Each structure stands twice: as structure tokens, then as C-alpha cells.
């Protein structure tokens, strides 16, 4: 084993290595992400949003955004590394390799006379009789005398010149990179070393893992409690009306943890009277309804009242404690609503479909919370989209509708001059207020969707086939932006736009396909679209050149403001299906879009395999009608629908020449959700 001094010197190097191995690559990755991260603070810049202060970066906010717990830990570790490097550097300068020629101030290969002359010269300077300094005495004994002895003794000098050490060849030495105090205790170094290894290498990681798993087991990947998902799953019903979604939403376990204080009783009573009309209470039995409302869990009552206060703009009258609780509720709302819509879209039926009605209700609630629009305003046709504009209220909306501007779409289609004249006449808006409205109107997205469905490698869709849906969603704004933050001055936090693409059958209230779409991260969208197109072309058996061309086309579309939603679903039973592709935004009111899609599913027969499918739903034949084909098929004795018999092939060729297309294309019919 190596000397304890050498072991003690190795310990800082060991600690430095253990810190540097994960810290250096993590820091490089963090800096790379920070450099490549695009700014997401793309907002309308209206006076309402500026007054809200959430987009204004003060010095304190800038420091707070940088001085997070993770960043402070990172800086602290780098400081520790710098201290260790400085300590090791100076420690190495103190621990010098034994070089007798250097100690005596001679060149290697000096003669004996030169060695004796140098020794006498240094003896005059460092000998204890000449220099009483203890440090000089130590240097003379440990260095000068040892160097002189090593060079004057023939055997020692030969060993030094041959092996680099006066004692000759040195064996392999091993050391333990532990501090000296752990190894200098007599008869106890082995036990202390064992305790050190067990504690640092086994117990510490085990404790960290137990603490992490105990906390993470309560939450999902979206930082939502598992108890919340269980409650949402059981409370979600296929017939859940949009007005009843609030009752399910407030049942989250996160809301139950909100503190309930006795000092909140009186303010909550006043708040209840202010928002009572928004609580869906039966006015005929108002006393019973009120008693039933207050019998709920106090935290849930408080949560619903705070949300209604936000929707009706009553938050200015809240106490500081209630205002803080309201912000906490609104901070949790986006991710809870996202999980709630997932619980509506999760496969529930025996066909693996989700539910359409509650999903639309959840999106409408999300829109109302972000825009702070009362739920009662959504019941009145065409009013809610106007209320998300700056400086608008109920009276201004009524005056505008009297000027024959019935819908929000009509207002968007007007010219800037016509709108300015309308606002000055009806609402007496100043030029600055008119400009605020124009900025928001330019920020509201215009969406279109193009949907195609088909079975890979087949000409027609048959019952039981795996159908591939491909939807290209295009976003355009009047200001030319693609990714932006919505106008939401009353919502106190940053909220990114998210869109949900749903392929649904309105008659059966079922969702066949769903996917969340975001326009903020272009790099992620390019990667996802490239992967999806590459997999699809591989299934189709395309050549590498065709695959590369398709990927380039998809990437170009994404960069121009398109996003790809692609998935698969199982073809239902034979029949014609009038499906609807919904494009729902969780942040804006009135920009939802939908397109119709006619899907014809054929019976699984050989004629259907070779037949074609047209968008209108009819198969084109050469001289033989569909009914005649069915009669002839019933008369023929076919052993198997997949038979390779030559006679069957001839019969089928006579009957089943079809020129239909594989893919079902949806017409991009744009209509707002409020107009529907």
C-alpha cells in the first residue's frame, strides 16, 4: 500500500473526478439548450397585457428566472471544483519528486568534485550550525543530505541513474483515495473504510432513490396526482354536458390540498352572492341548492368560487390570501384540464373509441379560463368571442350586434378602416384602444385542416382493416407569426396555445382518433413529421429517393406553418360513415374549425379487395353494376376469399375493375365552434 500522505493527496483528485464527470457534460448540455432555445414571449403587446405585468421582466424577475435551485446548485458545484483545482495545484507543488541533482543545483551527470562543492556550499547556507531556522534544518536533513548521499554512494547513484530512485527498482504501489484521518486510526482503518464504502456507495443512493420514488409514485409524468386521474376517470361520463364539466374539474386532489381558513368564510359568502348566477343552481329550489352547494368539501367549494371569480372578473375584490389561492388554482388549471381531456378521449367503448361531447366541454372550459370569459356568455350565441378582445364588455358587444355585425367572423372580415369607424361610433374607442383590438385580431389564428384516410397497400377500406389517418393542420395569422402566446391579460401565467385534432362520429358521440398539436416548437415538429413520413413510406415500399423527397416536402410544410397529425384506427363494420375532423384550440374562443370526411367501409370480400373507393362513396365498374356483382358472387362457389384459383381470378377481373381512390379527402369547411 502507498504511504498515508500519498493517499491523502489522492483524495481531492478523486472528489474532483467524481464531480467533474457528470457536471461538465450536464453544463454543456444546459448551455446548448439555452443557446438554441427560441424565445416564447411572442404576445400581442396590447395595453391590457402590458398592465398585467406577466410579460414585463423586471430586474428581480430576471434574477429569479436565472437563480433557480438547479442553477444555484450548478454554480456551487463549479465553485467547489475551482477550489479543488486550486488546492490540488498547490498541493502538487509542495509534493515534489526526489531529484538529487536539482536539489544540489547541478546538471545531471555532474562529477564527484562538483557534487562535493555544491554540498559544501548548501551546508553553509542550511546547516543547523549556520542557520538556526527549523525549516532550514528540515530541508538540510530531508533533502540536501539525502541527495548528497544518493549521489556519492556508488550503488545508490547507479540505482538512481538506472531506475530513477536511489533504492533501486520500485514495486507497484496502490493507494486509497481517502483522507488521512480515516486511515490513521490504529486497528480501525478497515472498519472505517467499510463504513465509508457502505454509506457512500450503498446507503446514500438508496435513501435518495426511496425519497424520489415515494414522491414520484404519487404523480404522473405531467405532475398530476394519480388520485386526480382516478377521480377524473370515474366521474367522466359520455353524456357529460359542457356546463357540468366544472363539477368534474374541481374534484382534483390538488384542489383538496388548498388550505381552508376561518377568515375566508365571510369573503367566500360575499363571493358566492356575486357569482351565484354562474353556479347552475336551480332557481326554483334555491335554498336547497345553496345548502347542497355548501355541504361539499370546503376546499372544493372554495376552488369553484375562486374559478368563477376569475371568470367574472371579481378577483379585484378578493383578500390577499384568497387572491394567492386563486393564482394557485389557475396555475394548476392547464395541466389538470389536459389530463381531463385525456380521460374523455381514452378508449372507453368496445370499439376503442373515446367520447366527443365531454372532450369539447373540457376544451370550452379551458378557453373560458384562459380568456376569463363567463360560462354563461357561451350560452348566448356569438357573444363569447367578442369578450376576449381588449376593452370589450357586454354593453359594447350588444351595441356592435345592433350594427348588423352578428358574428365574430364578420368582424374579422371587415377592413381596418371599417372596424375603426365601428369602434369609434359604438364604443367611443380612442386610437390606442382601436390599435389594441387590431393587434389581438392579428394574433388570433386562422386554422385549416386537410384529412386523408386509407389502408396502407390497399385500394379500398374494408371492415377490420388498420386505417391510417393523416391530417395536415395549417395555421396562419394576420401578423405573419406561427408560434405565439395568446392574448390573456386576466390569466396571471404564461400559457402556450395547444390544439386538439379529433376525428369523431357525431352520431355515436365517439372519437376515433385524437392528437395534441403545438406550433411553438418547430424543431420537435420537424422531427416528428420526418419520422412519421419515413415510417409510412417504408410500409408502402417506397425507394430511398421517394422517401427523401416525401420527407423534404413534409419538412417544408412544417416550416411554413403546418403540423402533421398521424395515427391509426380499426375500420368499423361495413357501411358509409359521415365523420367530422375537429380542430379545437384550448386558448382562443371562436377559432375552432372542423371538416367533414366521408368514409366508406366495404365488406371483406375479394371484390372489395380489388375494387376502388371514391370520395362520394360509389365504386366505379366497367359495365357491371354493384347489385349484379353481389348476385353473381352469391351464385359462385368460392372456397376461400383469398383463393388463388385461376377461374376465380378471371371472374373477379370481370366484376371488380374499379377506379376509385384509396384515400378519403376531407373538405376544409371552416366554421367557428360558436357558429356551429
3D architecture notes:
By secondary structure, the protein is α+β, with helices and mostly antiparallel strands. The chain has helices spanning 4-36, 47-52, 59-66, 69-94, 100-104, 112-126, 134-152, 154-163, 180-183, 189-216, 226-235, 245-249, 253-256, 265-275, 286-294, 298-311, 320-345, 356-371, 375-379, 384-387, 394-402, 408-413, 416-426, 431-443, 522-540, 544-559, 606-610, 626-635, 646-655, and strands at 354-355, 446-455, 466-476, 499-505, 510-517, 562-570, 575-585, 593-601, 664-665. It has a five-stranded antiparallel β-sheet with strand order 1-5-4-7-8. It has a four-stranded antiparallel β-sheet with strand order 6-3-2-9. Helix 11 crosses helix 17. Residues 607-676 have low confidence and may be disordered. It is a multi-pass membrane protein. Residues 617-676 are annotated as: Disordered. This is DnaJ ERDJ2A. InterPro entries: C2_domain_sf, DnaJ_domain, Ig_E-set, J_dom_sf, Sec63-dom.
Notable traits:
glycoprotein, C2_domain_sf, protein transport, 29 helices, single chain, 676 residues, four-stranded antiparallel β-sheet, alpha+beta, five-stranded antiparallel β-sheet, elongated
Radius of gyration: 39 Å
Tally of strands: 9
Low-confidence segments, given as residue ranges, are 607-676
The main sheet orders its strands as 1-5-4-7-8
What's the story with the biggest beta sheet?
5 strands, antiparallel
User: What's the end-to-end separation, in Å?
Assistant: 84 Å
Shape call: elongated
- Proportion of residues in helical segments: 40-55%
Total helical elements = 29
Q: Mean pLDDT, rounded to whole units?
A: 80
Q: Helix/strand-derived class?
A: alpha+beta
Portion in strands: 5-15%
